[in-house]
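Quick one: structure for this chain?
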Amino acid sequence: MIDKLIDKIIEKKSPIVAGLDPKLEYLPQSLLDKHFKSTINLETAAQAILDFNIEILNNIHDIIPAVKLQIAYYEMYGLPGLKTFIETANYAKSKGLIVIGDVKRNDIGSTAEAYSNAYIGYTPLQQQCVQAFPVDMITVNPYLGTDGIKPFVDNCKRNNKGIFVLVKTSNPSSKEIQDLVTADGLKVYEKVAQKVNEWGEDLIGNHGYSSIGAVIGATFPHELSQLRKLMPKVYFLVPGYGAQGGRAEDIMGGFDDRGLGSIINASRSIMCAYRNKTWSSKFSPREFALASRAEVLHMKEEIHKALMSKKSDSHKIN
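Got it. Here's what it folds into:
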């Protein structure tokens, strides 16, 4: 799976994953008016969000390799919201995109196996097995240790899927636990990094990276660079770009000399681009998806320039 993702990153020349984490307040008024003419309920809300997602995907699918769907924003709208999650994932796949389910699942034993089967495995139905959620990769929480991760790793091997393990997250209070120093002098996130290396050593692809990846926040650039050295064969999913404050220069430590190694997530800055001062003067709220495209292209250009600068600096040092 990691080779599929990297091939698309190379093909699109774009290490960007668009996060579709929608709330009704992100939608333009014209779309709300269209769906709430008579009835306002979970079904009409979920349908409005689906239309919002599809319009954005129609305008950016050719310039991104992947989309990330944070399931909490769909669960918020109940069963209709989960249906929209599935329909959005299927539509993204129909456009040739890798779909990352940001579900952060984990538990112990058979419960972890059930979570794993739901998202990157198959649900047995008597004489057949079906996939419950049409995603290619998911995020997982390592807090329960190896026996909580093993079912996910096993399904990655069986079904050509991938996972991103939370290692150093983008939120400020992550330091409260992730930066605690253990008995051997390593911080908790460094210990988790060691385990991620172990879990992924049997799933190294042709590009030299494992299908067992890591989530590393853009808001911690020093740690990002440090973890690139600690996990040379682990691909990074990097949230925190844009609305959370991460900049192009902050994420350079996550890339290797080939410009690979990280895929950078932006959510609100893409979905709500039509409200951004830069784009609101060029696009009307009805043209929200065109503004999203403009934001992705701007982000792509920023990252490309930073990568070229990094490459140039590297040559000067050598």
